[in-house]
Amino acid sequence: MMEILLFGSTGSIGKTALGVIKRDKNLKVIGLCAYKDTNMLLRQIKEFMPKYVCVVDEKKGLSFKRNIPKNCKLFYGESGLEEFSKLKSDISIMGISGISCLKPLLTNIPYTKRIALANKESIVIAGDFVFKEALKYNTEIIPVDSEINALFQLFKRFNANDFNRIYITASGGALFDYKISDLKDVTLKEVLSHPTWNMGKRITIDSSTLVNKAFEVIEAHYYFNIPFEKIDVVIHRESKIHAMVELEDNTIFACIYNNDMSIPIGFSIYYPKSFLSGNRIGFKNKFLFSFQPLDKKNFPLFYLILDAKKRNDNLLILLNAWDEVAIEYFLNKKIDFLGIYKALNYISKNYPSQKIKNLEDIFYWDNWARQRVKGYLENLC
């Protein structure tokens, strides 16, 4: 029996992971953690009967007490999340979004054998610290993100020393055919109408600006120790080819599967064994795969993020926080879509550059950024 802790159980990744888990009686969910969606959480508790439950929102957690079965222990609030993160498991699935994942991730590393990590920001902002901690406790970290997971699979099948380049594919998001000048009046519905994936709101919006793809380039660098100059991004609208590797003889091998997150989640749980998703592409129907280069003019934030990484200071932390808060403002219809671009461009030119020496620095500058971005965004409203 493989015991699993699931962080972010009521989100997109969490619900998909539970769909994979319930197909196998040898997988047991011992803990479910959600931020505040207690209605969904209660349904999950009734179906999976975990020993432990965590509600991160303290008020929601306190009111949720009466709904917990007697044989189930409830944790709530930030202190509860820390305790929950210290529970022992065979696998922890990290589906928490944003920088909020970093503390539970680092806390959990000593207590689990493997982490299936669906969170980008923890690696982008604190990759050195995360992998150092994982090495210290001999904990595996397997990426769940479809493109990075695809690279992980390819790296296990080829000798990395033979690689000439690696390619990460990008759908281009819902607004791919728009020019920057057309974006001011796009609606929230338009931005969230992703052509190939059904994802959380922030990552759907980040896929239109390609901020998420810049994050994936940085992830690939950390996971596989690949120099940035050997990582390319190519537009592939169909989202069937998730990553490719080019060998020294210029032959290219691709990882191809349907745009179904149960596949990389299942791989992360069962590796090194195979996960049979049942979702085959097949060749009974005609289909085409298309590729095109990235247009620098239409995706300036992609290059802004990568430039911030090259600066090797606190800017990536600030950009991540400003992006997250600006997206919240856009979701609440307080700013237009171009407000996200304006915010990130502004902070990239107006910030106190400081080197990051420890984890405390990361949380300090994240908090510093969040305090200041709201003032800037209020002026845009």
The helix/strand order is: EHEHEHEHEHEHEHEHHHEEEHEHHHH
Instruction: Report the structural category.
Output: alpha/beta
Distance between the termini: 53 Å
Tell how many strands the DSSP assignment holds.
Answer: 12
* Integer average pLDDT: 93
Runs in which pLDDT lies below 50 for 5 or more consecutive residues are: none
Portion in beta strands: 15-25%
User: What count of structural domains?
Assistant: 3
**Roughly how many Å is the radius of gyration?**
21 Å
Shape: globular
Quaternary form? single chain
Helicity level, as a percent range?
Answer: 40-55%
Summarize this, please?
The protein is α/β, with parallel strands linked by helices.
How does the SSE layout of this entry go?
Layout: E1 2-7, H1 12-21, E2 27-34, H2 38-48, E3 52-55, H3 58-64, E4 73-76, H4 77-84, E5 89-94, H5 102-108, E6 112-117, H6 121-137, E7 140-143, H7 146-157, E8 163-170, H8 188-192, H9 201-209, H10 211-224, E9 231-235, E10 241-247, E11 252-256, H11 262-270, E12 292-293, H12 300-311, H13 315-331, H14 338-349, H15 359-380
Parallel strand pairs: 1-2, 1-5, 2-3, 3-4, 5-6, 6-7, 8-9
Antiparallel strand pairs: 8-10, 9-12, 10-11
Care to describe what's here?
With 381 residues, this protein is α/β, with parallel strands linked by helices. The chain has 3 domains: 2-144, Rossmann fold, CATH 3.40.50.720; 145-260 and 281-308, no CATH class; 312-381, Rna Polymerase Sigma Factor, Chain: A, CATH 1.10.1740.10. It has 15 helices and 12 strands. The chain has helices at 12-21, 38-48, 58-64, 77-84, 102-108, 121-137, 146-157, 188-192, 201-209, 211-224, 262-270, 300-311, 315-331, 338-349, 359-380, and strands at residues 2-7, 27-34, 52-55, 73-76, 89-94, 112-117, 140-143, 163-170, 231-235, 241-247, 252-256, 292-293. The strands form 2 sheets. A 7-stranded parallel sheet has the order 4-3-2-1-5-6-7, with helices on both faces. Strands 11-10-8-9-12 form a 5-stranded mixed sheet, covered by helices on one side. A hairpin with a 4-residue loop joins strand 10 (241-247) and strand 11 (252-256). Helix 13 crosses helix 15 (359-380). It is globular. It starts with a strand and ends with a helix.
